[in-house]
Amino acid sequence: MKPMANLVELSDSMLMEVYADAMSSGVITSEHCERLQEAILSDSLTEYEHQALNRIFHSVWRGWLRYGDFAGS
Fold first, then answer.
1. What whole-number distance in Å separates Cα of residue 60 and Cα of residue 63?
2. Short-list 56, 64, 63, 48, CA closest to 11
3. pLDDT tens, position by position, 15-48
4. If you ran DSSP here, which 8-state letter would residue 65 be given?
5. Could you tell me what percentage of the chain is helix, strand and coil, using 3-state DSSP and rounding each to the nearest 5?
6. I need a labelling partner for 40 at 20 to 30 A (CA). Which of 14, 19, 51, 63 fits?
């Protein structure tokens, strides 16, 4: 079994980049979701990173972000 830590190196700034990209477009893409899932599965997130993830999830729940990939738009 490969260690999950090798799959993702998400820093606070990377999480903020995903959040900023998603909030500016109003869409969270499958690429964003994959990066977030890898971060969650790595089980090595700091409290600050957990808070950033919770802000993203809350934004989806509130309808401020929607899921989708839109090529060319």
1. 5
2. 48
3. 778 888 888 989 988 888 888 888 788 777 888 8
4. S
5. 65, 5, 30
6. 63
Give the separation between CA 3 and CA 7, rounded to whole angstroms.
8
On the question of pLDDT at 60 being above 80, the answer is yes
Average pLDDT across the chain, whole number: 76
Residues 6 or more apart whose CB falls under 8 angstroms from that of 16 comprise: 52
**Radius of gyration in angstroms for the set of CA atoms belonging to the chain, rounded to a whole number:** 12
Q: Which residue has the higher pLDDT, 9 or 49?
A: 49
Comparing CA positions, the residue from 24, 60, 57 lying closest to residue 39 is 57
Residue 10 · residue 16 · CB < 8 Å: no
Kindly state the DSSP code that residue 67 receives in the 8-state scheme: E
Answer yes or no: is pLDDT of 1 > 50.
no
